[in-house]
Each structure stands twice: as C-alpha cells, then as structure tokens.
C-alpha cells in the first residue's frame, strides 16, 4: 500500500542500488532512494507552467535574444554545454557571446568532481553574480529526464518539446569526436569550435584563440620520449629504480638543469633532451643514466634571448631552429656528474606567465611564440590572430600541455596587462611575476585600525613602563617614514651604561586572528621597488601610529641592557613601554652631531655613548668570525613627480650605519635567546646554514688566479683570509671577492625551533649560535610573531591561538621565506628596470670588471649600476675556459680584470630594449666596439 | 557532501521539508494481538504487539497500571555463504537499548495504562539490518499502528518524525546519507498531531536560537505523518470484516 507518494512536486520514487567491495572481497549493497519531481522549472522566461515553480534561479532564459547571433543556429536558441566543454573551456563562460546557457545538473556535478576551478567559475557566475545568461536545469530530479542513458540528449529532447519552438535547445560539446555521437541522437548538436566560428560577436576571434590551444595536433615526429604511466612511476619510486625531485633549470644554460632529489639532499644533472618537457619548478621522476653516459655541464652560456630571437614558429620548427643539434654528450671526462633523465612528471608547477609575444616573420601567421619574462621558462607556443595588437602589449599566457612532437609547450592567451614600456605596466608585471600581493588593503583590514585622529592610547596598561623621561632618538636614512627603531644610552656610573633599543609595538595594533593580521601574514614583508613601496601594513600604521617620530608619544617594545664599558652584557630586560622620541635623525645628521665637538646636549652624549659601545661590539663580532660581505646594491635618486631616475645615489658608509646595525643585532640576539629559552619548541628563529666546503670552489678559483689563498675551513678563517686579499693596484678586487663569497652561500631562512638539531640553529654570516628578527615589525611579519612570542614570555600579552604551535610557526616561516625571497628578487628586478629607463637616452663609459669567462663570452660587471652583462666572443678569439683567459694577438684578459666599458641601451628592438656593454679598453678585436656588433648582440641584462 | 545543495534540493531530490514515502500494512500476522509493517523511505520496521497479559517480569509489575516492555531486534544477513539465511543478531548494543527505553516511555504516556493493572504489553520491533535513517521515529510509528491493530486504548495515534538543521534550514525526515553528517537532529512524537509532545530526543548539539524553529517544524511534520498513519488505519478498518 503506497500511501504518501504524491507530495507536492514529487511524482515518482526510485531506488538506486550501488555495490561496494568490502575488505574481505565481498560486495556490500547500498540502496538509496531518489524522488523524481514534476516541478522542475525549465527556465524559459515566458513559460507560464514553470513560472509557478519554486526555484533558486530566476527563469531568465529567453530574456536576452540571440536570434541571428550565430550563423550555425539562426533561430533563438539555448545552449546546453556538455561536460568536456565546461571542464576544458570554463574560461570562455565569461564572454557574453554565450547567451541563454543551460547547465545541466549532471554536467554541474561532473564538473564539481573533476575540475574544481571550473566549478568555482560556474558557481561564481551563476549563484554569486547571478548572471542572467545562465540557468541550471535540474535534469537528475526532473521526472522526464532523470536516469536516462544520455542525460543531455534527454534534456534537449524534453526542453525542445516543452518549449515548442519558443526557444530551441542545442547541444554544444567540447570534443570534436563527440559531435557524431550526439548528432545521431539529437540533430541540433555542434562542436564548440563550430559554434564559435558561426558567431557574429566581436569576441569571436578572441574566443577562437582561447580555443585554439586545444586543437588536436597532427601526429608529427615525436621529439621527446614518452612519459611513463603513473603506475609505473609509483612502482619505480617504491622499488628505488627512479627518484623524485624538483627540477631546476640552470641559470646559465637553458638546456641544462638539475634535479634536487627529495629527502636525500643530492642533485642529479640533466642535459638537453633528457629534460624531457620538464619545466622549471616541476616535480619530476628521474632515472639515473649508466655511468658511461654521465657528462659535465658545458662551459658556455646559453640564453634563449640571443639564440632564438627572430625565428618563425609558423614554419616547421625542426628545420629553422638554430640550435637543433644536440649538445654533444661529452665523452666521459674527469669529474663527470651523476647524470639522469626525466621519465615522468609527477606534478606540474605551472602558473600564468607574464611576457611578450615574439615578432613573427610572417605577419599573417596564426602561430606565435610567447616569451615569458621569467627566463627559466621556455617559450610557449600560442595561436592568435590578433598578434599585431598583442605585440605591443605585455600579456599573460597559461600553459596547457606539452605534446611529444612539439619543441615548445602549447598555451593560450589569458589577458593583456598593458602597453609595453609603460612604467606602471612594467611594475605590474614585476609584481605579478614575483607573486607579490599588491592590491589595496580591503575594508575589513582597514576596519581593524583605530580611526584616524582617534585617541588610540588605552588608559592604563599595567605591563607598560613609562619611558618618556628617557632621551631617546632614532637614526634612519633620509626620507624614511616607517621608523621602527629608536635608541637610548645613559651612563650609570664610570663603568656601566644603560642602553635601550625601542621597537615600535606593532602587535598592540595588529591583534592575532584579525583581518589585518591575516593580510600581513600573507604579505610577509614590505616590498621596496625603486619608485614604489608595497606596504605590509596599512599606511596609518606604518607611517604614523607605529612610526617612532620625533616628539610624539608612541608605544614600543623595549630591550634594555646594562653594559660594561667593554660592552659586556650584565643584564638584559624586556618590557613594553611608552616613549617620546627626542629626535628623529638621519645617519648623516647623527654623524655630524657626533663629530661636532661643541655639541654637549643629551642627545649627542647619548649618541657618543652608543658609538663607543658599538665599536666594541663590532670588534668582538669580527673576532668571532662574522663575515662582512658585499652585494651589488644600487640606489637611485628619483624624480618623484615623473617617477624617472635622476642619478645613482652614492652610497657612503658612515659609522652611524654600523652603530645602529650593531645594536639591532644585539637586540635580535638577546630576544632570540629569551624566546628560545622560554619556548624551545616553537620559537621563530633565523638561521644561515654553514656552506658546504665544495660550494666555495668559485671563490677559491677566482682568488687563486689573483694570487690569493682563501681558507674556507671555518667562518673565522674565511673572514680573515678575505681581509688579506688586498690588491694594491685594484682596490675593487676585495669587494669583488666578497661578492663572489656571497654568491657561494645559501640564503638565511626563518624556521621554528625544534624542527632541526640545535647546532644547525647557527647564523653563519653573523657568527652567532642563534638569531632572530625582532627589530622591524612594521616591514617584516617574522618580527610580529617574535614580538608576540616575547610578549607571551614576559606575560605582557595573551598567548594567541596557534602562537605556540610548532607546525603553525613552521608554516608561517615557510611562507615568509618565500615572500622574503620574492621581495628581494622583485627589488632587484625593479633596479634593473630603472637602469634601463636611466640609460634610455644616454651612454656612459664606466669601469667594469670581468666576472667570468665562458667559451662564448665574457661576463662583465659594472658596480656603479649593478649591471652584469655578457659580451659575446666572435670565433677566432682564443678562449681558455680552464685558465679563464681570453687572448688575442698577445693581449689577454683575465678574470677580475678591470676593463672600461660603454653602457648603452640597445633599442633596435622596440619591444625589448636591453642594456648592452661595449668593451672600450683593453681593445680586443672580436670583443671591442670596432667589431661589427649587429651580428652578435650582447646578452640581455634583464635576464641575468 | 552538502545536505542542501546549491540548487536548494536535498541529495535524494526532496525539498527541505518534505517527508519520505510512507507505506504501511496492518494486521498481517494472526499469531500476535496486533501487527504492523511500516516502510518510511527505505527504513523498514515490523512490529508485533502481545498483550496486555499478566506481567511476567515481576519486578516491573505495578499494582495500579500496566507497563510496556519493548524489544528491539535487527536482522543480520549472514556473512558466510553456507548459511545464507537471515539470522538474528544476538546481544544488544547501546543504540537498541536506547530505542527500547524511548519507545517504552513514549507509549506509557500514550496508552491508558490504568485500564490494565498488574499486567504488561509487549512490543517487538524488528528492523532490517540496512536501515535508512530516522530509525526511532519509524519504530514509534510502527508501534502505534500495531497497538491500534491490537485494539489497545490510547489517548490518540502517536506520530513521530526526525528533523535536523543544516545551514540554518530545518530539514525533515532524514535519510541515512544525511544522518551520516553530524547535523543536530531531534526526534519528536506528538499525540494525534496535537501540540503536545510525548517524546523529545536530541542528538548532537543545536544552538538554542534554532530550537523554537526546529520544534515548530517538527510538530508540523508530526501532523503530516499523523495524517498518513490515520489514513493507513482507516483503510485497514474498511477492509476488515467486523465481528458482528
């Protein structure tokens, strides 16, 4: 007796049985009911029957008229996409050339399972933006269409009958191969390509471009070896025949790379075809080659910039590429590296890439090559017919796949960023490429701040010490608005001093788990470009409430030491305090005050005390083996109105620089000791690993050529031997050697205590067993965490959620490590961009130094502008890459030699102007300027 | 899995406040005083009522009224291929103990127990091993029908339903897939669909703000179930030959 069958809308009930295997090999039956309904709306706007049905979406089909919009389907029609169309081409749904789109529930569910990005796109368009172009037909619930073998066909047939000519449903499928199948069952089926080709819309071409990437490629000669199947890779990894690791292209030669084997710390070398379609950053499976096939890196610099500049991708690639010949596997030489080949890709690390379209010789061609700004990424082949327009734009391209028979990966055009050469656009590219969040702060973030002008000072905080009576001053570069540290020094008696470092109390404003905290944690660091600063915290905090301006009361977190006159720490205490800075000084001003013997006021006395103590600290640090390293940092004086560089800043090193630096280091170390003793499992620390002996090879070789002996057995020995490397004739040699030393080392990283053995906590460069960052919470998120940890340790603040969790600290440090590195790269890229603008209409002769000699070129470094570039060697010049000399007619050039070069911009290609160095002195034919440069251009600076 | 999907439906195609199909059969077994077979969705319950008869459990016997003794069993399909027959599960788990206790309490309020002093009424519930949600309410509904079939005087027909709350929306008559999710759910039983509860059972926790809404919807649904049960009893009576 069926009782309650007919409830409103429910007409039928079916039981669906599913079988699941059990662990013991038997099968379990799962039964569930499904109720089929007759109150499912068809979505047609003018359908009277369906308008009464309850539905989350408006019945909006047919409001937008697409009559005569498509040659293929002249009548008014509704598009039913099949699942492949949506999974592959969900990007296309943004275009309003598609109107009256019916998404079937079965397709929706399929997309949800198979392609989460596609699902998000659909959900945003349909349920969040409520775009009137879409409607969801619940075909699995509708009594007429449910449980049919071809749900789309059943739906189309039902809708066709139901609408009775008012609107015509058509099926559009993504795969050409499926059209036949659908056509047999339902006449009005089209492939997506055919449908778009029939469009009258102005976006037709753009749509075709996007579609094009997926066009089936004719089976040509396979260039690459086939990748192994997933099962085979898993098996291989389990049995140990192959290894898994991350693939890194060599920075000097795009046809060589290394795979860093996961969990072993070793690396395998890869060359040429053995890279087998791996792209920089991918996780790959590699197999070691037999020992007789091992090889060594070519000693030549190979950059795509020069080699592949003007080629025509329309023609058969194999014939016109200048470099089709394989780098000949060197016969087994001494020192061959373990060489491997890629057998499969485990995880792709693709993202949309910024870059430009390379000019194609045949203007009317459809296939074009795209050149990513990131030079470790290969060229990408895209298909477009708007090449002429795109050639003037910075564009973004995504890789789709890399077939075996293509030399380049295939991709599609995503969007244009803006015109090439426009400063804003170039900056945007820079930020996008380095994955730097640079959107303005959201409302939610700004809401976390106290209102401007409001009294932000809470009445009384018991843990806060009133330090307004102390004479405190800050010393910073000119024009600094985010002053986050201030100092004071007071002589207690003849032998002891009280010294305080006061750091802006950012955590007072940035509370854990608020929107502003999450944003700051994501940004990780403030990024400094030459003409712009991307703040980690909103301006109100970074330049006002947390900036320790002179004469204003501010909250700080203070470290107060009692030091002897030899700068030995007698005691250190930490507390939050309220200060009033007496003066915000610049380095120059502070130096002037110290040097002026007539000044006897409190600030000056305090500064003199600090200076005296800092010298003690510095000499002790150096005695411990701290390295002083050099880098090629360049700063520009900017014309802020036009945002153009005026001149290079001459960076002068003053004693006040190292004075502030010493106390910051001391504060960081003291805080590190405190938080580590309190939280040995979750303190956020910074370490600089001791470099492996072998990584110094470049340094030792370079020094030996100049007749110096660099000892690398310990940090102290290294520091001392570097100090001895002084060439009387060339004072820059020492700096250059220090730069090479910097390059030999790995970067310092943040980590959570307790994740590695204690001896590895060491900070090698500073020669201190532990270190952290405490002194710049306005511009670094690590400092914010350290502030919270320290506040918790001295019971000045609550312990926030997750603050004391090691895994949480570790994940935070992972993020800030990446952000920090990206910020550095972005800063450097920005300098290079500025150099390019600077040299736009000028040439200059500068001193340069030979940094390296390769078989095909000489690397020259110009310290004044931080330019490092390549001068290509014409055949005929003798190069001895072992002894590192270039010789011609008795003249030789050695590494680290001083040369004179002319710096200019090569704008023969308007799209990509590049910095070019011409050798003026010594004159070496084949290298110097009288040589015909048009046939061998210098290497692009921006890629080095 | 979302309990209510983006389109506003539940996984089996129902809307939030629709109950599942109910089918019932009464008096199919002559060996007991009353019997009923009730299917709600895919949850199937067979109920037999014996009594009132003289109390066999002396300790529970009361001088002024009868007591109700409930026994709950689940069929278990034998795992071994040799004995491919239905086999009773031995021993009791906590869930069946709960069901028994709640059914007893419910009907001790609904039945006019003072009519039968020093006696007992036995309710035997049998459930298939694969039940499909809302077990307790189905058991109570089946027991009501069986008690009616046995002709035991009650204050009214007891009807029960299970309601849950998902993302702020009350959903009724949960099935197994929905119960797998940790939604707060409440089982309500009312007499004759009136506004008085004889059973309230809450599983998981629900915010107090949702409770009035949950209770009101639950009562309305009990009324709907009551109508179904009422129809079932009337249909059964129409087909029974009265003893003249």
UniProtKB/TrEMBL annotation, chain A:
Q: Which Gene3D superfamilies match?
A: 2.40.50.690, 2.40.50.700, 5'-nuclease (3.40.50.1010), Nucleic acid-binding proteins (2.40.50.140)
Keyword presence, Hydrolase: yes
Q: What SUPFAM superfamilies does the entry give? A: Nucleic acid-binding proteins (SSF50249)
Q: Which UniProt keywords apply?
A: Exonuclease, Exosome, Hydrolase, Nuclease, Nucleus, RNA-binding, rRNA processing
Supply one GO CC term from the record: cytoplasmic exosome (RNase complex)
Composition skew (Basic and acidic residues), residue ranges: 319-328
The family note in this entry says: Belongs to the RNR ribonuclease family.
Report the protein name in the record: Protein DIS3 homolog
Taxonomic lineage is: Eukaryota, Metazoa, Ecdysozoa, Nematoda, Chromadorea
UniProtKB/TrEMBL annotation, chain B:
Locations listed in the record: Cytoplasm; Nucleus, Nucleolus; Nucleus, Nucleoplasm
Q: Which SUPFAM superfamilies match?
A: Ribonuclease PH domain 2-like (SSF55666), Ribosomal protein S5 domain 2-like (SSF54211)
Q: Which GO terms describe its molecular function?
A: RNA binding
Query: This protein is called what?
Result: Putative exosome complex component RRP41
User: What Pfam families does the annotation carry?
Assistant: RNase_PH (PF01138), RNase_PH_C (PF03725)
- Sequence intervals crossing the membrane: none
- Main location per the UniProt record: cytoplasm
**GO BP field:** nuclear mRNA surveillance; poly(A)-dependent snoRNA 3'-end processing; rRNA catabolic process; rRNA processing; U4 snRNA 3'-end processing
Asked whether the UniProt record includes Hydrolase among its keywords, one would answer no
Question: Which stretches make up the Exoribonuclease phosphorolytic domain?
Answer: 18-153, 156-219
SUBUNIT field? Component of the RNA exosome complex.
rRNA processing recorded as keyword? yes
One cellular component term (GO) for this entry is:
nuclear exosome (RNase complex)
């Amino acid at each position: 007796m069926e009782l309650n069958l007919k409830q409103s809308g429910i007409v039928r009930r079916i039981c669906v049985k599913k079988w699941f295997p059990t662990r013991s090999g038997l099968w379990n039956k799962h039964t569930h009911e499904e109720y089929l309904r007759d109150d499912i709306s068809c979505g047609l706007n003018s359908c009277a029957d369906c308008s009464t049905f309850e539905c989350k979406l408006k019945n909006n089909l047919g409001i937008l008229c697409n009559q005569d919009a498509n040659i293929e389907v002249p009548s008014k029609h509704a598009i039913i996409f099949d699942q492949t169309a949506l999974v592959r081409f969900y990007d296309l749904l943004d275009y309003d050339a598609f109107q009256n789109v019916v998404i079937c529930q079965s397709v929706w569910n399929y997309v949800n399972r198979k392609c989460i990005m596609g699902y998000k796109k659909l959900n945003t368009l349909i349920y969040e933006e409520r775009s009137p172009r879409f409607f969801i037909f619940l075909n699995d619930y509708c009594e007429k269409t449910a449980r049919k073998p071809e749900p789309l066909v059943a739906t189309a047939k039902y809708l066709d009958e139901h609408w009775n000519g008012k609107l015509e449903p058509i099926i559009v499928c993504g795969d050409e191969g499926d059209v036949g199948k659908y056509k047999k069952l339902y006449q009005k089926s089209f492939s997506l390509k055919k449908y778009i080709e029939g469009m009258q819309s102005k976006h037709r071409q753009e749509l075709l471009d996007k579609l094009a990437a997926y066009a089936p490629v004719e089976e040509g000669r396979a260039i690459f070896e086939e990748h192994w199947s997933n099962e085979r890779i898993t098996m291989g990894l389990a049995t140990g025949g192959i290894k898994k690791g991350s693939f890194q292209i060599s920075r000097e030669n795009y046809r060589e790379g290394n795979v860093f084997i996961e969990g072993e710390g070793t690396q395998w070398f890869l060359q040429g075809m053995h890279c087998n379609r791996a792209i920089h950053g991918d996780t790959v499976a590699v197999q070691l080659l037999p020992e007789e096939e091992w090889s060594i890196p070519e000693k030549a610099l190979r950059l795509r910039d020069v080699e592949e500049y003007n080629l025509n991708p329309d023609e058969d690639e194999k014939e016109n590429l200048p470099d089709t010949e394989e780098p000949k596997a060197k016969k087994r030489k001494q020192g061959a590296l373990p060489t491997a080949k890629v057998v499969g890709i485990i995880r792709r690390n693709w993202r949309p890439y910024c870059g430009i379209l390379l000019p194609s010789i045949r203007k009317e061609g459809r296939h074009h090559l795209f050149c990513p700004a990131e030079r470790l990424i290969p060229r990408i082949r895209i298909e477009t017919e708007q090449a002429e327009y795109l050639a003037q734009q910075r564009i973004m391209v995504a890789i789709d796949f890399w077939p075996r028979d293509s030399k380049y990966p295939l991709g599609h055009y995503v969007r244009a960023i803006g015109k090439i050469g426009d400063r804003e656009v170039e900056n945007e590219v820079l930020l996008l490429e380095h994955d730097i969040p640079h959107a303005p702060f959201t409302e939610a973030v700004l809401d976390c701040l106290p209102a401007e002008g409001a009294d932000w000072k809470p009445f009384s905080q018991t843990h806060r010490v009133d330090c307004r009576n102390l004479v405190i001053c800050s010393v910073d570069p000119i024009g600094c608005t985010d002053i986050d540290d201030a100092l004071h020094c007071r002589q207690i008696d003849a032998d002891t001093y009280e010294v305080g470092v006061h750091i802006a109390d950012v955590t007072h404003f940035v509370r854990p788990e608020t929107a502003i905290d999450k944003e700051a944690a994501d940004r990780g660091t403030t990024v400094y470009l030459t003409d712009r600063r991307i703040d980690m915290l909103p301006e109100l905090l970074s330049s006002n409430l947390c900036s320790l301006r002179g004469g204003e009361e501010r909250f700080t977190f203070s470290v107060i030491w009692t030091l002897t006159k030899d700068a030995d720490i007698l005691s250190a205490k930490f507390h939050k305090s309220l200060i009033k800075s007496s003066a915000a000084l610049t380095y120059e001003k502070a130096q002037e005050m110290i040097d002026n013997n007539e000044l006897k006021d409190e600030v000056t006395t305090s500064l003199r005390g600090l200076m005296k103590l800092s010298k003690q600290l510095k000499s002790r640090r150096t005695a411990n083996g701290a390295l002083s390293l050099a880098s090629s940092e360049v700063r520009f004086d900017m014309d802020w109105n036009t945002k153009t560089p005026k001149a290079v800043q001459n960076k002068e090193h003053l004693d006040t620089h190292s004075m502030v630096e010493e106390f910051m280091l001391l504060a960081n170390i003291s805080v590190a000791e405190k938080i580590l003793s309190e939280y040995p499992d979750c303190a956020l620390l910074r370490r600089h690993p001791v470099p492996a002996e072998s990584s110094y090879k470049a340094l030792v070789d370079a020094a030996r050529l100049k007749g110096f002996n660099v000892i690398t057995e310990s940090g102290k020995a290294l520091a001392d031997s570097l100090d001895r490397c002084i060439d009387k004739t060339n004072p820059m040699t020492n700096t250059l050697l220090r730069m090479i030393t910097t390059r030999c080392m790995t970067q310092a990283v943040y980590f959570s205590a307790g994740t590695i053995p204690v001896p590895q906590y060491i900070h090698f460069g500073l020669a201190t067993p532990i270190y952290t960052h405490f002194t710049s919470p306005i511009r670094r998120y690590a400092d914010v965490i350290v502030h919270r940890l320290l506040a918790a340790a001295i019971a000045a603040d609550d312990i926030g959620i997750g603050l004391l969790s090691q895994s949480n600290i570790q994940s935070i440090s992972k993020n800030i490590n990446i952000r920090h590195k990206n910020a550095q790269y972005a800063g450097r890229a920005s300098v290079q961009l500025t150099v390019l603008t600077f040299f736009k209409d000028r040439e200059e002769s500068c001193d340069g130094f030979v940094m390296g000699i390769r078989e095909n070129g000489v690397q020259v470094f110009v310290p004044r502008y931080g330019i490092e570039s390549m001068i290509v060697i014409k055949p005929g010049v003798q190069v001895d890459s072992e002894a590192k000399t270039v010789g011609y007619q008795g003249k030789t050039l050695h590494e680290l030699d001083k040369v004179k070069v002319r710096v200019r911009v090569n704008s023969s290609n308007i799209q990509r102007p590049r910095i070019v160095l011409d050798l003026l002195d010594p004159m070496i034919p084949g290298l110097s300027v009288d040589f015909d440069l048009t046939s061998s251009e210098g290497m692009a600076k921006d890629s080095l | 899995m979302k309990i209510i999907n983006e389109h506003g439906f539940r996984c089996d195609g129902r809307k939030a406040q629709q109950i599942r199909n109910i089918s019932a059969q009464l008096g199919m077994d002559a060996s007991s005083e009353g019997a009923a077979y009730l299917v709600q969705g895919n949850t199937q319950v067979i109920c037999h009522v014996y009594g009132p008869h003289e109390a066999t459990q002396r300790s529970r016997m009361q001088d002024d009224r009868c007591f109700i003794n409930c026994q709950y069993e689940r069929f278990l399909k034998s795992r071994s291929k040799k004995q491919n027959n239905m086999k009773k599960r031995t021993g009791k788990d906590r869930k069946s103990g709960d069901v028994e206790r709640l059914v007893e309490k419910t009907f001790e309020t609904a039945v006019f127990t003072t009519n039968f002093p020093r006696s007992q009424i036995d309710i035997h519930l049998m459930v298939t091993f694969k039940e499909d949600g809302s077990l307790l309410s189905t058991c109570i509904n089946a027991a009501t029908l069986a008690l009616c079939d046995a002709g035991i005087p009650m204050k009214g027909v007891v009807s029960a339903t299970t309601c849950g709350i998902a993302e702020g929306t009350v959903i009724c008559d949960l099935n197994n897939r929905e119960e797998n999710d940790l939604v707060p759910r409440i089982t309500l039983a009312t007499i004759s669909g009136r506004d008085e509860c004889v059973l309230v059972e809450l599983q998981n926790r629900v915010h107090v703000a949702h409770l009035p809404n949950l209770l009101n919807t639950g009562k309305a649904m009990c009324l709907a179930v009551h109508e179904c049960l009422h129809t079932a009893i009337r249909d059964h009576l129409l087909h029974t030959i009265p003893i003249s």
